[in-house]
Write a structure and sequence with these properties.
Blueprint: H1 9-14, H2 17-25, H3 31-38, H4 46-63, H5 78-84, H6 93-115, H7 121-127, H8 134-141, H9 156-186, E1 189-197, E2 200-206, E3 215-220, E4 226-231, H10 235-263, H11 267-293, E5 299-300, E6 306-311, H12 314-323, E7 330-334, E8 340-344, H13 351-365, E9 378-379, E10 384-388, H14 401-415, E11 420-424, H15 433-449, E12 453-457, H16 461-465, E13 473-481, E14 486-493, H17 501-507, H18 512-521, H19 524-605, H20 608-626, H21 632-635, H22 638-661, H23 667-679, E15 688-691, E16 698-704, E17 707-711, E18 716-720, E19 724-728
Parallel strand pairs: 5-9, 8-12, 8-13, 10-11, 11-12
Antiparallel strand pairs: 1-2, 2-4, 3-4, 6-7, 13-14, 15-16, 15-19, 16-17, 17-18
Helix pairs in contact: 2-3, 3-11, 4-11, 6-7, 6-8, 6-11, 9-10, 19-20, 22-23
């Protein structure tokens, strides 16, 4: 199996990773957890990085939700476990109680994670690796009470001894009370009368009467005015108590040794419990740090893609928050098409902070620490992080800054590859600008050939120009407010930046004559190049201002458009409702006019049959208008068809029966009579009927003399009973 090498400590030191760990440590309780935090290093194993981030993220989720983890901060019991490894040794009762609490806590945590496994899958997976023995806690609690003391019931012998001790102590108190009253009456005692020294009851005797009180002197007051005497009458009983106390101690040691022997088979699992609780406390500290920093879990990708969105330098963010100062977030992206970023710009403009932000956040993520970025951020797992940051002059090795940096570059060349992230601040400085810049360019080309990923900061123009030669190298600059000649600390990708050397000098009051002389001493091409950069940055700033203004106007217009669209929709809905209401009212009006005409005609001619016929005819016309797709056959229900068939069958059978019985009579007359009798009926309320010759059924709702009020569902109408035929009896 290939050995995985950790990130070199020098890189972590340059990135101030130790300051992050010092801060995280403050969120832990036990020394063991704090020490564990201080030795955290980035992992270069993809699965391990994701595991650690998941654990921290799930714990953070518990802090921010209604499902907090059960309390689990148990003091580590390393010393107790060491005693278990010693032959014929025992563990102190207080430490045994800690072990019992640890077992109960882990058992409770497992039940909690099982119950909420969808919220804490990774934490559940980790605890399932541990075999839990609830019997350990039961075994301990059978002997140790909640105060960390051995119970009387731990053994019959211990119970007997303690009973004897109690009995003798009660006798001592009885005799002592008698002695106290006696000497109090004699006036030998001081105002406090009694006290306790070394767990022994003593009389507080005035020094002048010390020889008159029989007993053992155990001490005096600071002034010597009081002498503490144990009465002679209880000396023997006290000696008896001492003997019983010794027996008690021996019995307790025997019980504890016996318990230690019973716990030895569980030593390996107990060690796992201790390690797990320390690890969980470490995870808790990382989660609480993330909560304080407003950090989150980034996506860890297998692709070579570092994409930091709205990233903050964690140390700067906490520091500025305490000072009440703002921090500008950065967007930094490295990928296969943009492997190297060259950041330029004025001094104190934020170049180094941007470079350190990328490196520190990468190291933190690979250490299982959540980072202050936008949730869309992505990071790969780099196998190595190489740094050259700050003044690295080595007094011990008698190396200058430049010599040290050259030595560092030599190490870079040996270690750098496609899985490396390199970070170089002020690349090429420390020597002759032209020569140092040329050597820096040669190194950069070599890093490029080895397909490494990196960020460098520089003032050298030749390094700014190299981006035009290589497609996977891109320039960037720190934004500078030219009008106020102040940095804005915003990083912009795609364009090199000016150092604003002469502009800043002029702003702070350096005479123009000196600035002009300085310009003449610099080659004309360099001055023109820098002026071009300044001009381009001005134009870029102007374009960005216009873009910002355009976007604001665009958002404003979009908002107005949405509001207008919403208003139009509301008006359209109201218009549709109005049209429907108008149509409904128009239909009602036309229906009323039609009925009025029919009733006027009825009042004129008093022909009820004609009125009913006209109403039904008009109703059929209206129905055909509204339901043109339904013909007469389809509108007839299955029930009506079946009823019609039954009636026809009944008529046919009845006719045949009558023909058989009335052979000698006039057949036609009798049949006519039978048909009349069959079709006539006595109407009742709720009968289903229809007017003869009509296909529309109605329910009889009211009967008056020779008329019936028919309910057709949508309207009602009176009809003569003689005009009705039965469809279905109620």
């Amino acid at each position: 199996m290939r050995k995985i090498q950790p990130i070199h400590p020098k890189a972590l030191e340059d990135l101030e990773f130790d300051q992050i760990l010092d801060t995280v440590k403050e969120f832990a309780h036990s020394d063991q957890a704090k020490n564990k935090i201080l030795v955290i290093t980035p992992s270069i194993d993809y699965e391990e990085v994701n595991r650690q981030l998941d654990l921290t993220n799930e714990y953070l989720r518990s802090l921010e939700s209604e499902n907090p983890l059960p309390y689990h901060i148990i003091p580590p019991f390393d010393e107790a476990l060491k005693m278990l490894k010693v032959e014929n040794a025992f563990i102190e009762p207080a430490n045994l109680l800690i072990i019992a609490n640890a077992v109960d806590t882990i058992n409770e945590l497992k039940r909690f994670f099982v119950k909420l496994n969808s919220y804490f899958p990774r934490l559940l997976t980790e605890i399932e690796k541990i075999k839990i023995h609830p019997e350990i806690a039961k075994m301990i609690r059978k002997i140790i009470n909640q105060y960390g003391e051995v119970k009387d019931e731990a053994s019959p012998e211990l119970k007997k001894i303690r009973k004897e001790i109690y009995s003798v102590q009660q006798e001592i108190l009885k005799i002592f009370s008698t002695e106290k009253r006696k000497y109090e009456k004699l006036g030998y005692l001081s105002d406090i009368k009694e006290s306790i020294l070394e767990n022994r009851n003593v009389l507080a005797v005035s020094a002048a009467y010390r020889k008159k009180v029989k007993g053992s002197i155990l001490g005096t007051s600071k002034t010597g005015s009081i002498v503490f005497i144990e009465p002679e009458s209880i000396n023997a009983l006290q000696k008896q108590v001492f003997g019983l106390k010794f027996d008690e101690k021996q019995e307790i040691i025997r019980i504890l040794k016996e318990l230690a022997e019973a716990l030895k088979p569980f030593l390996t699992d107990l060690q796992k419990y201790n390690d797990y609780l320390i690890e969980l406390e470490t995870i808790a500290a990382k989660a609480k740090y993330a909560q304080d920093l407003e950090a989150l879990r980034p996506e860890i990708t297998r692709q070579k893609e570092l994409h930091l969105v709205k990233a903050f330098h964690p140390i700067l963010k906490r520091t500025n928050r305490e000072l009440g100062l703002p921090v500008i977030p950065q967007d930094i992206e490295l990928n296969e098409q943009r492997r190297i970023i060259i950041i330029s710009g004025p001094n104190a403009g934020g170049k180094s902070i941007s470079l350190k932000t990328a490196g520190l956040l990468q190291a933190m993520a690979q250490s299982g620490l959540l980072i202050p970025v936008h949730e869309s951020s992505k990071l790969p797992v780099f196998q190595n992080i190489l740094t050259d940051i700050g003044d690295n002059q080595s007094i011990e090795n008698q190396l200058s800054t430049y010599s040290y940096r050259l030595k560092n570059m030599r190490n870079f060349l040996r270690k750098i590859n496609e899985n490396t992230l390199f970070l170089i601040d002020e690349f090429g400085t420390g020597s002759d600008p032209d020569l140092g810049g040329a050597l820096a360019e040669a190194f950069l080309e070599e890093f490029y050939k080895k397909k490494a990923f990196g960020i460098i900061t520089t003032h050298y123009n030749n390094l700014k120009l190299i981006a035009d030669k290589y497609p996977e190298i891109v320039n960037a600059h720190m934004e500078f407010d030219i009008s106020r000649l102040q940095p804005t600390y915003r990083l912009h990708i795609g364009q090199a930046g000016s150092s604003f050397t002469f502009e800043v000098a002029q702003k702070i009051g350096i005479p123009y004559s000196i600035i002009n002389k300085a310009k003449k001493k610099v080659s004309r091409n360099k001055v023109k190049f820098d002026q071009t950069l300044v001009k381009m940055q001005k134009e870029i700033k102007s374009l960005k201002d216009l873009q910002k203004k355009y976007e604001n106007e665009k958002r404003k217009l979009e908002k107005e458009f949405k509001e207008q669209t919403s208003l139009n929709k509301d008006l359209l809905k109201k218009l549709n409702r109005f049209n429907k209401l108008y149509q409904m009212e128009n239909d009602i009006l036309q229906t009323g006019e039609k009925l009025n005409k029919l009733f006027e005609e009825y009042f004129k001619h008093q022909n009820a049959k004609r009125l009913t016929s006209q109403i039904f005819k008009w109703a059929e016309i209206e129905k055909n208008k509204k339901f043109p797709h339904l013909d007469k056959t389809k509108r007839q229900t299955k029930q009506e068809k079946n009823k019609s068939k039954k009636e026809e069958k009944f008529k046919k059978e009845l006719k045949e029966e009558v023909l058989t019985e009335l052979q000698e009579k006039d057949v036609h007359k009798e049949l006519e009579k039978i048909e009349i009798e069959t079709m006539s009926f006595e109407p009742k309320l709720k009968d289903q009927v229809r007017i003869k010759g009509s296909q529309s059924n109605a329910i009889i709702e009211k009967l008056e003399k020779n008329k019936a009020l028919l309910n057709y569902g949508k309207f009602r109408a009176w009809a003569p009973i003689k005009e009705l035929e039965l469809v279905l009896r109620k």
